[in-house]
User: Fold Aldo/keto reductase from Actinoallomurus vinaceus.
Amino acid sequence: MRYRLLGRTGLRVSEAFLGAMTFGQDWGWGASLEECRKIFTAYAEAGGNVVDTANRYTEGSSEKIVGELLGSDRDRFVLSTKYTLTMDGTDPNAGGNHRKNLVRSVEASLQRLGTDYIDLLWVHIWDPDTPIEETMRALDDLVRAGKVLYTGISDAPAWLVARANSIAEFRGWTPFAGLQLPYSLLKRDIERELLPMASALELSVAAWSPLAAGVLAGKFTRGGADGPSRVDRATVSERDLTIARTVDTVADELGVSSSQVAIAWTRARRPWIHPILGARNLEQLTDNLAAVDLELPEEAVTRLDKASAIELGFPMEFIADTTDFVYGPSGERVDGRRPR
Assistant:
């Protein structure tokens, strides 16, 4: 496992993050404490150093299990958790990105995790009812207090993230260092606005669900749909199955698993994307870890890109289509900052 810097910080984070959404059996499909220990140990022995959880994962059990597993080695790991989601649906202030929920959520997370600081705290999802200025200032206060070291945001529009970091820059507050977003061959929407923004602002991206909840692992194309699943077969489109079959074909040609191909694709052209590996058992985690060392042939990447291509829409397609009109023939002789 190699390491990269988180965003524009000096924090070293491993190529792949360990997702702890499966830690705990409160939701009916997670892993037992014993299995979680095996998963965590295998990840650590492979050189991984980022464990990602959230206050709401398995109703708090995930954070408790993560804290227990880290134990005396806590300082060797980058502990990543999130706030925003309510832990009490009867209280209107128990959810959202406002200061009150942030402070209460972080204190509760620290207690469950058994630590006095969080390395990387994510805003779990955009709360349109809380001004971003309030969120950024409140996060900065926690950084200054030493309870949080770095911050990121998950599941938010590009314009909001750009505005948030601009505000932080001008006011001397802590900016977001990374984004946490869904990214897979089945879900490439973030290529329209979010990934270009992340590249321009030098934000790391933690990619959740790189296997599309198992669809790209062959769950419905290789006869592996038995057991608990978060995906209803009826919701899987023919397009999704076609893409999954392409992944299967590439995997068979390379002599690796479909999971490894799907995960490796997320980083094929963007090494600053860190897939979050979520597993319910040691076998799944071991298989997924092998993707870190898999370098897909360019032909395979092109084939996968073509099978899963999406329309970028306006304005990106319009900008690309009007290049000659804007720059004229001389534009072809200019080496720009980014490939066209």
